[in-house]
Amino acid sequence: xxxxxxxxxxxxxxxxxxxxxxxxxxxxxxxxxxxxxxxxxxxxxxxxxxxxxxxxxxxxxxxxxxxxxxxxxxxxxxxxxxxxxxxxxxxxxxxxxxxxxxxxxxxxxxxxxxxxxxxxxxxxxxxxxxxxxxxxxxxxxxxxxxxxxxxxxxxxxxxxxxxxxxxxxxxxxxxxxxxxxxxxxxxxxxxxxxxxxxxxxxxxxxxxxxxxxxxxxxxxxxxxxxxxxxxxxxxxxxxxxxxxxxxxxxxxxxxxxxxxxxxxxxxx
Length: 268
Description:
The chain is built from twelve helices and two strands, in the order H-H-H-H-H-H-H-H-H-E-E-H-H-H. The chain is mainly alpha-helical. Among the domains are: 47-130, Cytochrome c-like domain (Cytochrome Bc1 Complex, Chain D, domain 2, Orthogonal Bundle), CATH 1.10.760.10; 139-229, Cytochrome Bc1 Complex, Chain D, domain 2, CATH 1.10.760.10. The mean pLDDT is 85.
């Protein structure tokens, strides 16, 4: 053992020991760097995928949207600019089938989407790359079932939304032939995106106006209203006393007129 240690010690004192160790260290570092460089990093892969998605979205935009919104989304006399609207606005408008539309002078109605989910995501990525704006909502943010408060959401809805959408979220008429659509059956992500983007006549509710937690509570209230049973009979769309009164007057007056006619015919 002493001999081995002595021999090792003599090797360490050799004049070529230091250069040899330096060469070995440099070779090890160079080999490790080469291997690491050859393996694509996660960030590079994500950047490449994002760039590919943006390019695809740009092509879709050029084919289906540029005739109204301009080649560079700068807008035109018949359609607004999309620079700065963010991915959320595209996801809402295209995902609900409101865009593209043939007549831009009319209110956009919900219909079957023209583009699938992948194409919609590509369009949203392209528009988002033009300028900062609200990002589209993902499932991780939509924790309304767990974090929402139905009572608080109802209070917020009646304060900020009921004057257009009706207190039961059934929709209602607006001025100049426009209307606020019903929220029954609308996906939670589109309700959230509508609040942060303010489509058409709807105001935009920023996180300072209505916090993300409060938005989740509003969604929970809407979903509760959607699943609420009509315990009192026919709900008549839950549009309020006007419809109920009209039904009573129509049936009541019709019945009274029928009785009057019958009595008059009997008196002859």
